[in-house]
Amino acid sequence: MPSTKSITGTKATGTETTEFTSIVSKSSVIRRRIDVGRLQNILLIWLDSSIDDSCADCQNTIKQLRQVITNIYTYTDADQCTQFIQTVNDNKIYLIVSGALGQHVVPCVHAMSQVDSIFVFCSNKKLHEQWAGEWPKVKGVYTGIPPICDTIKQLVQECELNSIPLSFLQIPSVDTPNKNFNKVDPAFVCSQVLKEISLTSTFDEKSIKEFLNRCHDSLYDNERELRFIEKLKRHYRDQIPIWWYTNHCFLYPMLNQTLRIMDVEMIMPISFFIASKDILTSLRFAQQVARNPDLVGVLFIMTIDPSQPTAPFALISDVSYNHTENEILFSMHAVFRIHDIKTMAGSNHIYEVRITLINQSDKDLRGLYEWIREETFPDEKGWFRLGMVLTKIGQVEKAEKLFNILLNQPSTEQQKAAIYHELGRVKYCQELYQKNLEEVKKKL
Predict the structure, then answer these.
(1) Which CA distances in Å does 114 have to 161, 168, 190, 232?
(2) pTM tops 0.70
(3) Given CA atoms 96, 101, 104, 108 in this order, what sign does their dihedral have?
(4) Given this model, what pLDDT does residue 216 score?
(5) pLDDT tens, position by position, 73-106
(6) What mean pLDDT is predicted for residues 327-333?
(7) CA separation (Å) from 205 to 30, 33, 197, 234, 444?
(8) Burial zone of 51 (CB within 10 Å; 0-12 exposed, 13-18 middle, 19+ buried)
(9) In the prediction, which pLDDT does 426 show?
(10) Is 369 exposed, middle or buried (0-12, 13-18, 19+ CB in 10 A)?
(11) What is the pLDDT of residues 160-198, one digit of tens each?
């Protein structure tokens, strides 16, 4: 058997990659599947020299894990596994490792920031608890898969919350001359443009159905998510979008992942950020985060004046799927002013940050919005505008993907000519970057 296997729809066979087309119906194969790595911020790696993908026990183990984590890779070789971990940039890793391999692998990967949690899976718990206890990211030593799945379920929500995109920037005075657009956080710029585009975009029933069909194809062996997709198809109009978004399903992590990495192939009109009104709930999340040596816990204490014209927000406990949590929904691109940052009493790993939701009539904030809008091709429309913005801020690979997607959509000859023109600009930027990179290498 190969020493590595992706349980996400492709299988490594030497130097070639073949699709698992036999698992899905013919009509499903024709549709373009969603890469499962885009459905969740987390990927799971199972490393064990005894893994045999033809073994019924191994297949059952993977099936159980897939009910919790969508994106799974299996490895039998420790070196190959470590090399793969080093290539992961946009996801957090949960690593399940055998006791025998864990003693050698954990010291090698523990300091890697992409490794979030480690689970030791063995037959002799007492034997491996001593060395495993020396590493903070090791969540425990387990002799069965169900307890691992239960622990992962608890950790997934925390990891997704930690991955919600935030931008920090200095708002220049409206009177500041010669503002430098290149110094503005690109994520902040993109989120403003994306919000403007989302508010003017419409999606018909056909678009929603096509999207759900693609999700169905990607989650073909996750029974829980498939049931949810069918429920979504039949009853989408029976609930408001907030209810579906806050449900325990793939939508929440997928939408957050899409925004976090600005995935141009998956961007949808996402306009929500979830926070909690309950300080004890918020503090509990911060304390749990602080246990990870790569992270610090941050408790945001928000001040909001409902009488002022701020970004839209609402307490949604009555309409959310999670009625027991006092969640507050903020419009995407809500801006807060930081007043104070200090460590919490009795803890050097948890910070208390006091912030205030900025009044939308704030002169400097309005000036910033207007300036960004002027710099981001306000006369252009829709996704074409976003592509031009991505090129301007240097994210040319994402711009190229977006323009190629637009080429495959119905358009006039004039529109296609404009897209080809922008692709030419992208190519010029790529060649210029490569030329500059080669010059720097020569000087080094």
Answers:
(1) 16, 22, 25, 32
(2) no
(3) negative
(4) 85
(5) 999 999 999 999 999 987 889 999 999 999 999 9
(6) 73
(7) 20, 19, 19, 12, 56
(8) buried
(9) 93
(10) middle
(11) 766 666 777 777 777 777 778 888 888 888 888 888 887
* Pairing of β 313-315 and β 272-276: unpaired
**Structure tokens, 426:** 């992208």
Instruction: Tell me, letter by letter, the H, E, C secondary structure of the chain.
Output: CCCEEECCCEEEECCEEEECHHHCCHHHHHCCCCCHHHCCCEEEEEECCCCCCCCHHHHHHHHHHHCCCCEEEEECCHHHHHHHHHHCCCCEEEEEEEHHHHHHHHHHHCCCCCEEEEEEECCCHHHHHHHHCCCCCEEEEECCHHHHHHHHHHHHHHHHHHCCCCCCCCCCCCCCCCCCHHHCCHHHHHHHHHHHHHHHCCCCHHHHHHHHHHHHHHCCCCHHHHHHHHHHHHHHHHCCHHHHHCCCCCHHHHHHHHHHCCCCCCCCCCCEEEEECCHHHHHHHHHHHHCCCCCCEEEEEEECCCCCCCCCEEECCCCCCCCCCCEEEEECCCCEEEEEEEECCCCCCEEEEEEEECCCCCHHHHHHHHHHHHHCCCCCCHHHHHHHHHHHCCCHHHHHHHHHHHHCCCCCHHHHHHHHHHHHHHHHHHHHHHHHHHHHHHHC
Question: Residue 66 — very low, low, confident or very high, per pLDDT cuts 50/70/90?
Answer: confident
Q: What is the mean pLDDT of the chain?
A: 79
Tell me, what's the pLDDT at 114? 92
Look up tokens 């902040």; give the residue. 188
Q: Stretch 147-153: mean pLDDT, rounded?
A: 93
The confidence score (pLDDT) of residue 384 equals: 93
Residue 288 has pLDDT above 70, yes or no: no
**What is the bridge-based pairing of β-strands 297-303 and 350-357?**
parallel
Q: Is 56 exposed, middle or buried (0-12, 13-18, 19+ CB in 10 A)?
A: exposed
Structure tokens that stand for 361 in this block: 């009539």
